[in-house]
Design goal:
By secondary structure, the chain is mainly α. 80% of the residues lie in helices and 0% in strands. It has 12 helices and no strands. The longest helix has 33 residues. The radius of gyration is 25 Å and the shape is globular.
């Protein structure tokens, strides 16, 4: 009798231990820890880059008109702010990029599902999507201008041609990584066809799909910059790509550096504000990331 009670206690202890391993330890991160681990390292990296930049200027490694000092770029930034054009230029490009990306998701998601789930479609379109993903978006600018003219339709066409293959291929990759056990379990409970896609395939493929969305945004942003640099027109308004091209035409190196830094800043900000939190939330919900 005593032996039976001991075995029951051991089994209960084993179950409790397994439950403890499965449980995700969640605690509120102190502000000081966030400051030290998340904020301070990138700030120090930026300070180091600016310092090296200034040292190169002081060392006169090249002519001043080729490598302007950081202060000259800062003056260009403050001038645009004083003129009230800085936020307008940024918003022109950001609004185009985000709207084009949303359209790419709306088109690329069902296309990716179709390619992933239908063998004939995959055999016919899969290689084309992979080929389009490797094709530089700048190649589409010239035909888009001829087909659609110098207006926003050209910008969105170039964004779609650059981003849709990335979004679709990301979803295809995510679906391919869904464990077969999940699909069999879904069929057992009657989740087949569209119900199986909605309740089993899409949730299980979310990590790969999110990776495709991040890549799709990167392609959207790059495609837009290529289109804005080439397709310059007063009717299109002044975006970051056109700001860069204007700097080149006017031989304004501080303006060129400012445009490059703003393009980089927007790309990083969108990733930090939208995609990184979304990715962490999905990974944490699957026990793949422990909150520290």
């Amino acid at each position: 009798m005593a032996s039976t009670e001991t075995k029951a206690d051991d089994l209960a202890g084993l179950e409790a231990g397994l439950d403890a391993l499965d449980a995700v330890q969640v605690r509120r991160t102190p502000a000081r820890e966030i400051l030290l681990n998340k904020v301070l390292p990138p700030v120090l990296a930026v300070v180091l880059v600016v310092l090296v930049w200034q040292l190169l200027v002081w060392a006169k490694v090249t002519d001043d008109y080729k490598l302007p000092p950081p202060s000259a770029v800062w003056h260009s930034l403050t001038d645009m702010w004083a003129q009230g054009t800085l936020l307008e230029v940024i918003w022109t490009s950001v609004s185009r990029g985000l709207l084009g990306f949303v359209m790419a998701v709306v088109i690329g998601t069902p296309l990716g599902l179709l390619v992933a789930r239908v063998k004939v479609v995959r055999a016919a379109i899969g290689p084309i999507l992979s080929g389009l993903q490797s094709l530089p978006s700048v190649a589409w600018v010239a035909p888009a201008i001829i087909w659609l003219g110098l207006d926003d339709k050209t910008m969105y066409a170039v964004i779609l041609l650059g981003a849709v293959p990335s979004v679709a291929n990301g979803l295809v990759s995510g679906v391919d990584q869904v464990p077969p056990l999940f699909l069999r379990a879904g069929r057992t409970i009657g989740a087949t066809g569209l119900r199986g896609t909605w309740h089993i395939v899409l949730p299980a493929s979310l990590p790969g799909y999110l990776a495709g969305l991040k890549q799709g945004w990167a392609f959207s942003w790059r495609s837009l910059m290529a289109a804005e640099i080439i397709a310059s027109s007063p009717d299109l308004g002044l975006g970051l790509g056109q700001l860069l091209e204007n700097g080149r035409n006017n031989f304004d190196m501080p303006g060129i550096f400012l445009a490059i830094l703003l393009i980089l800043f927007v790309g990083i900000a969108i990733d930090l504000l939208i995609f990184s939190p979304l990715e962490r939330r999905v990974l944490r919900s699957r026990g793949l990331l422990v909150k520290s």
